[in-house]
Amino acid sequence: MWKFSSVASTAGCRWLGAAGSLAVAVGGWAAGTLPLRGGAGLWQRHGSAVTTAGTLLAYAGLTLLVLAWWQYGRRLRGPERAPGSRPRPLVTLAWWAGPLVLAPPLYSADVYSYLAQGAMVLEGHDVYGTGPAVLAPGELGHDAAASVGGHWTHTPAPYGPGFLVIAQLIVRLTGGAVVPGVLGMRLVALLALALIVWAVRGLAPEGREDGAVWLAALNPLLLIHVVGGVHNDGLMIGLLLAGVLLAVRGRWVLGAALIGVAMMIKSPAAVGLLFVGILVARRRGGGAAGLAKGLLPGVVAVAVAAAASLLAGTGFGWLRTQSVAATIHTALSVTSDVGLGLGVLFGGGDPEPVKAVVQKLGLLAAVAVIGRLGWRAWRGRLDVVLGLGLSLLALVALSPMVQPWYALWGVCVVAAVAWDGRLGTYLAVLCAALVYETAPSGHTPWYGFVAAGVVLVAGVLWVRRDSVTGVPGAVRVPGQATAPRVRPGVRR
């Protein structure tokens, strides 16, 4: 099997990944999600030849980054390292994230929606009642609104008032200019990345911090979609993980407050309250008294959310827009695909009612899975942090709308406690596949799905081969002598 001999050390992986990241950034200047207006002469759309060349360069760079990341993880799992090859994951993270900092938006146009929605609040529009299309010429955010993805042009904001406050601040500071606005949002994404690193290192067992950073922060899926694509999911994840870390350290009130703030970025962070509540309850000895204590984190978070909704001036409209995403079909949503198929077969010409039923059943199934995981954590049969990660993965898998970067919700949590087990290894394969689904322009071409499928199958076969041959860093299989070290008390 190919051993990546040219990048045998972690330093070699660092340089290879940096070259890949640079190629992604350079390709993005030609083929990224470039603005229709407001590029300031820096971010301009090009002809088909230049765009195609940029796309090929970005895909080639992405492949280098994925290969470097995979080999880096294998080096961290292995019992031996090449001489002089200290892991230094934070240095590696700087080298890999650095080229993306000044690049145009990559793989998504969502950042233009963020800017437009922040401008809508400043201009007095109801951000929870209409979409960015309402912004008129001469109003702040009009240029950003022109570049919003088609489905989202008329869609109300599904984000909490906390995130809209950040968006407003950036629009106000930049005067609504597109390029400074995007860079301001990217600064927020970088702060979120730092928060993720701090939290996963704090949650990881002693001696396993480097691996946690590898799966969570060095992950190419996070780099291209949180740093490159500027998705606010990174901020939600960072605040959620920070809240969990504080709760684990006994400061559950502040932890619950941070989770409340995370909910005001994106609502899925609320799942964290169940497991923080379980953590608090178990520390109080369980029983009725412990259960009552376990409800308090939820009370704190709800109070924070209510205060944020009132102080932000946008009210509680975010509660009624949580379902808007379900109106946009994404091919990665299993329940939407199954529902659409059944609707076409049995819907009598209108598949939407059947599709909506299947989507709701999927969410009910997700609630059931989360409840089961919570029960196991309550009984002490499942690590609380791992239970949260698995719950977020289940929520994503059964949601009516799924984007590639949604997988990071659970992956980053699992990374903190189980990066080197069977689960962490297969999640790494999944992330390596998902990076190919979206083109640098933000579109989802057919060849992206083909590439993702090929990488997924190849990755699974590679991992299974390693597990049989006993390669250092292989996943754990029954009776395998080369199993990686496992965090005490964690059941995989």
Task: Explain how this protein is built.
- It is a single chain.
- The protein has 492 residues and is mainly α.
- It is 62% helix and 0% strand.
Topology (elements, then pairings):
Layout: H1 10-31, H2 48-77, H3 89-97, H4 110-122, H5 142-145, H6 161-174, H7 178-203, H8 209-216, H9 220-228, H10 233-248, H11 252-263, H12 271-283, H13 287-294, H14 296-312, H15 334-346, H16 352-378, H17 384-397, H18 408-418, H19 422-434, H20 446-469
The average pLDDT is 90
User: Biggest sheet, in brief?
Assistant: none
Q: Choose one word for the global shape.
A: globular
Low-pLDDT segments, ≥5 res: 1-6, 80-84, 471-492
Q: Tell me roughly what share of residues is in helical segments.
A: 55-70%
Structure keywords:
mainly alpha, disordered C terminus, disordered N terminus, globular, single chain, 492 residues, 62% helix
Outline of the structure:
This protein has 492 residues and is mostly helical. It contains 20 helices and no strands.
